[in-house]
Every structure is written in C-alpha cells, then in structure tokens.
Amino acid sequence: MVFAQALAAGATLLGLSAQASAFDITKNSNLAVYWGQNSYGAANGAGANNQQPIGFYCQDDTIDTIPIAFVTQFFGTGGAPVMNLANTCNNVDNKTITGTDMPDCSSLASDIKACQAAGKAVTISLGGATGSIGFTGDDQATQFAQTVWDTYLGGNGTVRPFGDAVLDGIDLDIEGGATTGYTTFVTALRKLMTGKTYYITAAPQCPFPDAYLGTTLDAVGFDAVYVQFYNNYCGVQNFNNTNGWDFDSWDNWAKNTSPNKDVKVYIGAPAAQSAASQGYVDSATLAGILQSTQKNYTSFGGAMLWDASQAYANNRYDKAVKAALTGAAAPAAPSSSKPKRELNRFFGRWD
Ligand SMILES: *[C@@H]1O[C@H](CO)[C@@H](O)[C@H](O)[C@H]1NC(C)=O
Ligand SMILES: *[C@@H]1O[C@H](CO)[C@@H](O)[C@H](O)[C@H]1NC(C)=O
Ligand SMILES: *[C@@H]1O[C@H](CO)[C@@H](O)[C@H](O)[C@H]1NC(C)=O
Ligand SMILES: *[C@@H]1O[C@H](CO)[C@@H](O)[C@H](O)[C@H]1NC(C)=O
C-alpha cells in the first residue's frame, strides 16, 4: 500500500493535519461519497478500475466524508458483526478475526487515519441492500450499540477490524430486515458517543417517509440524511416532474419533525451510469439541481454520491459536484463513462 504510506508521510511532512479544515456538518456544501463496494468493478467486470484502498480517495479536498460500505451482518459467528469491503477486504480473501467471520482489515488503519488527518470524517455504514440485518427487539438493539462502539468507535473490544483507528460515527443504510429496534439502537449509541465528535447519519430512499427508518428518523436526532434520490420515481432524473422530485417533504421533515432541527439533508445521486439502474444525470445537470436546492432550502447539506469507484472512473464526477457545491466555476465535464450496463448481483443492490 505504497500510496497510503506516501499519503501519511506527505501529511506529516506538509503538516496537512494542522492545515486541513476539519469536517463541518453545519455547511451546505459537503460532499459525502460511499467507499467499500467497488461498484464500478462490480458493474463493469472484475479488474475494471478496481477500487483502491480508502486512502487513495483522500488525496485532495474533494470529498468531505466517507461512509464505509458495509457492515452486512449484525450478529455473525461468535456474535460479532460481519463487514464486506469487496476487493479491498472481505472474509474470503483476507484472514478473519479469531472466532468470527469479521475480516481483519487492520492494514487500512493508517489510510483511515490519513483521511481523518486530511479533515475528512470516516464513518461505518450498516446495511446495504442485501444485508442480513435487524433486531429481534430492544435488548438486541442496545447490545448491538455497545458492539458497534467497541468494534469501530471509541470502545476497546477485541474485534477491531480497523485496529486502533477510531471512526467518526455510523451511517444507517437499512434496506431490508425488520424495522424494530433502530430507535433504541441510535439512542443507546448516542449515550456511548463521548470523547470526540461522532456523527450519526442515515441513507433513506427518496419516497417519503422511508419504509425502514421512517419512525426512527422521527424519533431520534440524526446529524444528516443522505437521501437516495435514485432508483426511484422521485430521483434526480425526475427533477422537472412535479410528481417526481420531492425535496420539499424532506425539508419539511427536517424543520418540523426531526428531533434535531439542524439535521442536514443531502441529495444522494449515482456517480455514473453504471452506479444505479435509474437516476444518473450528467454533472452539469446535477450541478444545476444542487445549486438551486442549496439556494432555496436551509436544510440542504450537500451531496452524497454512490460510490467512489464510479466517480473516479467517470471523469472525477465527484470533483464537478464539489465545484458546484462550493460555487467554484463548474468545470466542463462531459459524462463520457463507458456505459456497459451489465447487471450482476451487486449492481443496483448495494446502493
Ligand atoms: C485482502 O486480500 C486481497 C486479495 O489478496 C488483497 O489484495 C488486499 O490487500 C487484502 N486487504 C487487506 C486490507 O489486507
Ligand atoms: C476497555 O476499557 C475498560 C475501561 O478502561 C476496561 O475495563 C476493559 O477491560 C477494556 N476492555 C478491553 C477489551 O480492553
Ligand atoms: C430540467 O429542465 C432544465 C431546463 O429545461 C434542463 O436544463 C435540465 O436538464 C432538466 N433536468 C432534468 C433532470 O431533466
Ligand atoms: C427554487 O426557487 C425558484 C424560485 O421560486 C424555483 O424556480 C426553483 O425551481 C426552485 N428550485 C428548487 C430546487 O426547488
């Protein structure tokens, strides 16, 4: 992992950790980009621009926060959760932590710390579309909050897939399983979250209210929601359709229903044609949507993209999006991805 070491060394030499501005959740120009599932490789054939370790995506100021995707099982062998990071780290190709099916990804710890030193918030996302997830009830939810704290955050459990790297929070991308227990889980986790700033986000689908997290989003405070405005009639592709696009409902929820009245709503979008079955628009079109929403809604927090591998393969779509958010001159960005739209079992399922 030459580049990760180079990045860490560079960060030290240049004093980047001192200069980098820390992630600021109150801004309306943040860019969240999921990393972990190698969506481009999955959709375009193995070996096609394979996902690089996380540090690769932290070498400039484009991305502000990275949810790592995904914890796919809450209670696996030995009671430990299971995480899958596609080609970068998984429990088939990589060794597992003794007595569990959790892969040992601790060689990524230096990458994660380098991302954090560069001012990015790195969180762990729970779920994804095929996750074996959910709680039998509140007791399990409370227990799992402790597990997540010990496994990824400030706790000190024996199962630490990222070693001594302490992530900056969690993201809930719940697209299956039972809906029970999430309010208890978030409440219990919040109580444990002391010692530094931690974030709790969610990635609901755009139809309001969200089928899995709707009641939880109403009951406990989240820091941000990365609304998936894709793979649905209400996606960015239907921005001009009054029966399609509906940021209003989310803005209204943020201001009037959410227990955290400062919760930020992000527009989640696919970073390339092959990143979703529905909802990709070119970067100039998305730029217009982002800027118009940013102007009209104080709840707007920025953009979320699925995912880093797709954005990098698509002419650095992430850069064009960040430029739109910060009001920098929108770069001419022809969306000349190679749209080989091959559906496989990951495609459209890990959104
Ligand atoms: C996991 O295994 C793959 C395949 O051998 C390897 O390329 C990768 O670097 C390993 N990941 C980690 C985090 O050690
Ligand atoms: C975690 O820290 C607590 C408090 O210092 C300590 O009691 C406990 O033994 C530690 N657990 C592990 C697994 O190190
Ligand atoms: C919405 O309409 C505007 C003006 O006609 C157009 O420039 C833009 O591309 C349209 N957006 C979408 C997502 O179709
Ligand atoms: C923002 O408000 C203007 C003026 O009312 C309107 O034309 C535009 O469609 C709105 N944009 C969004 C994204 O709501």
Automatic annotation (TrEMBL):
Keyword Hydrolase: yes
Gene Ontology biological process terms in this record: chitin catabolic process; polysaccharide catabolic process
Catalytic reaction list: Random endo-hydrolysis of N-acetyl-beta-D-glucosaminide (1->4)-beta-linkages in chitin and chitodextrins
Signal peptide location: 1-22
InterPro entries assigned to the protein according to its UniProt record, in alphabetical order: Cts1-like, GH, Glyco_hydro18_cat, Glyco_hydro_18_chit_AS, Glycosyl_Hydrlase18_Chitinase
UniProt xrefs under CDD domains: GH18_hevamine_XipI_class_III (cd02877)
GO cellular component: extracellular region
Annotated region described as Disordered, given as residue ranges: 331-351
Keywords in alphabetical order: Carbohydrate metabolism, Chitin degradation, Chitin-binding, Glycosidase, Hydrolase, Polysaccharide degradation, Signal
A molecular function GO annotation: chitin binding
Bias-annotated ranges (Basic and acidic residues): 339-351
GH18 domain segment(s): 29-328
Protein known as: chitinase
Taxon lineage: Eukaryota, Fungi, Dikarya, Basidiomycota, Agaricomycotina
